[in-house]
Design a protein that fits this description.
The chain is of the alpha/beta class and 219 residues long. 49% of the residues lie in helices and 14% in strands. A five-stranded parallel β-sheet has the order 2-3-1-4-7, with helices on both faces. A two-stranded antiparallel ribbon has the order 5-6. Helix 2 packs across helix 3. The chain binds adenosine monophosphate.
Length: 219
């Protein structure tokens, strides 16, 4: 029986990390911790933190490491992570990866699986322009490959889907650049530790899900 499952999801924006993280979260009953979702919630709530990060997110740049590490430290101190967690969107820089290791060490924990969802830039751009999100439940759709059943409304909530501000073409380009520069070293960081599992993110959602479940569950 699996007792602990600490996972990080890696890959460019639009790779399908969030979609797959939600599946894994359901399958293993462990929380899906998306730093992007957490920051967007702060923005919607109009909190001081939200105000501070709003422009940074819109520009496609990264929020400063210290702030992100503080957010993760607080989140991982909650009880619901006892049996494991799935980090999606963190760590995004080498110093975040190192700080995460330190933090987990102090809690007698470690990352067991890092999942790299690999997709090329042209697929990222194509996918993000077709991406829609439910503002209520956070479910992610793609108007070409995974559209909702009715018009542009969420299958679960019936709420009108939205396009994220940072999914605009100019911002997507910047986000990809930032990813290549700052986040790809994190992939090597986990590869060197022999806990990197690479999955072809250009395959359809169900296929990627099946591969991930085999990978993570089979070890
Ligand atoms: P995401 O939903 O993961 O694509 O995140 C959306 C935006 O939130 C990113 O483009 C960053 O501006 C910010 N963000 C989310 N997670 C992090 C992180 N770990 N470090 C820095 N910025 C982050």
């Amino acid at each position: 029986m699996i007792t602990m499952m600490n996972i990080v999801m890696l890959g460019p924006p639009g790779a399908g990390k969030g979609t797959q993280a939600k599946f894994l979260s359901q399958e293993f009953s462990i929380p899906h911790i998306s730093t992007g979702d957490m920051l967007r919630e702060e923005i919607s709530a109009g909190s001081p933190l939200g105000k501070k990060v709003e422009e940074i997110i819109k520009s496609g740049k990264l929020v400063e490491d210290k702030l992100m590490i503080d957010i993760i430290r607080e989140r991982l101190s909650r009880k619901d992570v006892e049996k494991g967690f799935i980090l999606d969107g963190f760590p995004r820089t080498l110093s975040q990866a190192e700080a995460l290791d330190e933090l987990l060490k102090s809690m007698q924990k470690a990352i067991e699986y890092s999942v790299y969802v690999k997709v090329p830039e042209n697929v990222v751009v194509e996918r993000l322009s077709a991406r829609r999100v439910c503002p209520k439940c956070g479910r992610i759709y793609n108007m070409i490959s995974n559209p909702p059943k009715h018009d542009e409304t969420c299958d679960v909530c019936g709420v009108k889907l939205i396009t994220r501000d940072d999914d605009k073409p100019e911002t997507v380009k910047k986000r990809y650049e930032v990813y290549m520069e700052q986040t790809t070293p994190v992939i090597d960081y986990y590869r060197k530790r022999n806990i990197l599992f690479t999955v072809d993110g250009t395959l359809n959602v169900e296929k990627v899900k099946e591969m991930l479940l085999n990978m993570v569950g089979g070890i």
